[in-house]
Amino acid sequence: MRALLVAPTSGEAGALAAQLKLAGCETAIATDESSARAAGSQQPPNAIVYLAPLALERAIVEVKALRVVADSFVAELLVVAGALDEAQLALVYDSGADAAVVGRQATTAVALVRAAERRSRRNETRTSKAANLQTPAVIAASPSMPSPSQGAGAAVVDQCAATAAWIGAHDALATAASQMIGLTVKVGDVGHLKAPLAFGSSIVLRSAEQQLELRIAVGADGRSARMLATHMFGADDDGMVADLLGELGNIFMGNMKASLNASNCAFAAGLPEACAVDEVMRPVITYRHQHGFALVAADAALAVYLGLRWKGNLALARAALQEGMVLASDVYNAKGLLLLARGTRLSQTMIERLNTSLPAKSIVDVAAP
């Protein structure tokens, strides 16, 4: 696994480089788009990790430039930002990031890099698909993973649920939470949730290839939420509590995404959203496999829910594409050149690009919403 770190100064990337080396990753450091291209040409990376500056406008410009560099090396672009709200994080994704994490936690960035490992195989996939492309009006599904029917969908979900990533999710998320919060976090059953939940947040990940959906929800009672927010941010207002749960959701998302990708279950990340407290542990949708447990830190307890289900992909006309949809297969133009890779979350800019590059009757496979 090779990672290329891009930061304004080489010293800023030093701590993360050390963590990546301990995790078995080869690392190189660049300071801008030009030096990143030069470093990558000597040793093509599997992932480019951009340590974004606080200035959002500058970060957006550089993410767009690095997206081009990442595509040239068939690498994943990961963004580590100091402080972004939900709207700003959405802009980072729209600019071309494959994944992003808020806060300079080296351990989380390492998890995101591991999530990129599977992308290293994309060159072979792209070459084989381009060679077998028969008609530019139809965007072919991936030959590496047959699309399961409704009946076969249960087997796909069960296979994912049998991985060590899913089975060991309790302990893995407890470790991730402990590293973020700075307190010892232990796994407990839902009986540790003594008070009614007052806050909730959820995030949904989708696997376009295996047609799976993973839901992660985090909730807390008022006392626990405010205690942890004060410990983390020095304030306990509702905004800080929302930031706390959203950040936990992002951390859990990165952890699950990385570990499942390592088990050949590739997921594309979403964004955390506030959810009704009664839906944290009891979602309105039925999931075939579920984990419900508590994470206990000092006198505080968090409710955590993981749900896994199969969702059939949709074949849509070009004009029916919507922002936020996830591509279920690579998209090529009439010349067989890759436009967007499977697993990409569509932005409005990407949709406009497809509208100008594909024939009007083209069919595009996307993960079901």
Strand order of the largest sheet: 6-10-11-8-7-9
Give the overall shape, derived from the CA principal axes. globular
The helical percent reads 25-40%
**CATH level-3 fold name of the largest domain:** Chemotaxis protein chec
Question: How many beta-strand elements?
Answer: 15
Q: CATH first level of the largest domain: which class?
A: Alpha Beta
Structural class: alpha/beta
What are the low-pLDDT stretches, counting only 5+ consecutive residues below 50?
118-151
Q: For this structure, what is the CATH homologous superfamily of the largest domain?
A: CheC-like
| Rg, Å, rounded | 20 Å
CA-CA gap between termini: 32 Å
SS summary, helix count: 12
CATH-scheme architecture of the largest domain: 3-Layer(aba) Sandwich
Quote the beta fraction: 15-25%
| Number of spatially distinct domains | 3
Overall pLDDT level? 80
Order of helices and strands: EHEHEHEHEHHHHHEEEHHEEEEEEHE
The major beta sheet can be summarized as: 6 strands, antiparallel
List the helices and strands and how they pair.
Blueprint: E1 2-6, H1 14-22, E2 26-30, H2 33-42, E3 47-51, H3 56-72, E4 76-81, H4 86-94, E5 99-102, H5 106-115, H6 122-132, H7 150-161, H8 164-167, H9 169-181, E6 185-188, E7 199-207, E8 212-220, H10 222-233, H11 238-262, E9 273-274, E10 289-297, E11 300-310, E12 314-317, E13 331-332, E14 338-340, H12 348-357, E15 363-366
Parallel strand pairs: 1-2, 1-3, 3-4, 4-5
Antiparallel strand pairs: 6-10, 7-8, 7-9, 8-11, 10-11, 12-15, 13-14
